[in-house]
Amino acid sequence: MCDCTPSNAKGWLGWNVPAGSPVTTAAAGPWIDLSHRLDSQTPRVPFFPAPTLEKIRQIPEHLINATRLTLVVHTGTHIDSPRHLFNDAPGLDEIPLSRLSGTGLVWPVDTGGHALIEPVHLEGAKTHLAPGEMLILNTGLHKSVGTPGYEDHPYLSQASAQWLLDQGVKLLGVDFPTPDAPVSQRAPGFNYPIHRALLANGILIVEHLTHLDSLNGQRVEVMCNALNITQGDGAPVRMLARPLVG
Questions:
Q1: CA nearest to 122, candidates 166, 152, 90
Q2: CA 108, CA 214: separation in Å to the nearest integer?
Q3: CA distance linking residue 33 with residue 240, whole number of Å
Q4: In the chain, N or C terminus with fewer CB closer than 10 Å?
Q5: Exposure string (b/e) for 68-79, b if CB count within 10 Å is 16 or more?
Q6: In contact, 216 and 183? CB cutoff 8 Å
Q7: For 244, which DSSP code?
Q8: Can you tell me the distance from the alpha carbon of 134 to that of 122, in angstroms, rounded to the nearest whole number?
Q9: Is residue 138 in a domain?
Q10: pTM for this structure?
Q11: Residue 238 β-bridge partners
Q12: Span 144-153, pLDDT tens digits
């Protein structure tokens, strides 16, 4: 994550947000896939290589098709575990499943052309969100994947990170590359302050979401299907959501 060598890779403060309760409200409608397809065009930050898919067995030369996938785990729709920033924090294999599933809210965000997402853009979600739930932000940027505009994305202010902590959000999902500042705006020594604030307190982060428009403003049931990677700092995710009734 960082282009510099940190002086201290410790900083895990624990699961300081609740895990939430099991889903008790009925869900309606089909599951919606919020994930980008995984191929060489999958969205990623510029300093990570594109995924490669290599056919190592192929019909008719062989009796089976088999593909070797090579990728950085922080490519495409993926989750960041606390281990991403802190060596003393849990990896993906240590994250309780209750933190990867549950209820939440898809919230539309219009910054009016400004880069920063401030608490004023989130405050309307407060009455629809309970502690221990997930918040998924839809800025509409998922429609710009593959364009320069996708790299010049909005990002959270420090005040918005604190707002998420104050609400007890257990997982933040975004339809852009990262809740931290775009790569082009990072000064030397940049240390991922938003990732650091959220992950240190157990707020998981899912990046590069898509297909959110039909869920705007709705409470949803969410399944965050992440690969169970030992000591994983991140993993590809097939994230699914469907509306809740009532």
A1: 166
A2: 11
A3: 5
A4: C
A5: eeebbbbbbbbb
A6: no
A7: B
A8: 13
A9: yes
A10: 0.93
A11: 225
A12: 898 888 988 9
Kindly state the tokens that stand for 27.
Answer: 């869900």
pLDDT tens-digit map of 69-90: 999 999 999 999 999 999 999 9
Rounded-to-integer distance, Cα 6 and Cα 190, Å: 10
| Dihedral angle computed from the Cα positions of residues 122, 127, 131 and 133, in that order, rounded to the nearest 10 degrees | -70
Instruction: Give the pLDDT band (50/70/90) at residue 6.
Output: low
Q: Which whole-number Å values give the CA distances from 223 to 54, 89, 215, 226, in the listed order?
A: 29, 23, 15, 9
- CATH number, residue 125: 3.50.30.50
Residues paired with residue 68 on neighbouring β-strands, in sequence order: 54
pLDDT of residue 243: 96
105-138 residue pLDDT tens: 999 999 876 789 999 999 999 999 999 999 999 9
* Strand 234-243 relative to strand 219-226, pairing: antiparallel
Query: Is residue 47 included in any domain, yes or no?
Result: no
Nearest to 85 by CA among 235, 169, 215, 195: 195
Helix axes 193-200 and 158-167, enclosed angle (nearest 10): 10
Per the domain annotation, does 3 fall within a domain? Answer: no
Is the pLDDT assigned to residue 15 strictly greater than 90? yes
Residue 17 lies in a domain: no
Residues spanned by the domain of 172: 32-36+73-243
Amino acid of residue 161: A
The C-alpha atoms of residue 204 and residue 233 are separated, in whole angstroms, by: 11
**Helix, strand, or coil (residue 214):** helix
SS3 69: strand
